[in-house]
Amino acid sequence: MAYWWANALQAQGWRLRALGEQLAGGGFIAEIEVTDGESVWVVFPRNMPDDGTEASALANFLQRLTFDQRNYLRRLLADTRGIDVVRSASHDGR
């Protein structure tokens, strides 16, 4: 499911970062283009209210994945345009 939600967000032009990391409050960070090449960065933390969107579904689901499952998801998404799978340097991964 997480892969499907991430792909749906990417199809909207979002760039996803810090999947499941502390930097993102356990959810993810999205870089979203708003106008003429300008973009905003939005944090979607885990436990955010479910608003029926792929973004809230992904943010809430990431906390259910183990460390290894999150890494596997990052690898699956690595070849997908719009996904930045680089983890933050401050995240120890456990």
List strands and helices in order, with pairings:
Elements: H1 2-11, E1 15-17, E2 28-35, E3 38-44, H2 54-62, H3 67-77
Antiparallel strand pairs: 1-2, 2-3
Structural class call reads: alpha+beta
- How many helices in DSSP terms? 3
Q: What is the topology, as strand order, of the major beta sheet?
A: 1-2-3
Residue stretches low in confidence (pLDDT < 50, at least 5 long) are 89-94
Strand segment count: 3
Rg result: 12 Å
Instruction: List the secondary-structure elements in sequence, H or E.
Output: HEEEHH
Question: How many domains is the backbone divided into?
Answer: 1
Short description:
The protein contains three helices and three strands; from the N terminus they run αβββαα. With 94 residues, the protein is α+β, with helices and mostly antiparallel strands. Strand 2 (28-35) and strand 3 form a beta hairpin.
Describe the structure in your own words.
- With 94 residues, the chain is of the alpha+beta class.
- It has one domain.
- It is built from 3 helices and 3 strands; from the N terminus they run αβββαα.
- Strands 1-2-3 form a 3-stranded antiparallel β-sheet.
- The chain is globular, with a radius of gyration of 12 Å.
- 24% of the residues are buried.
- The C terminus is likely disordered.
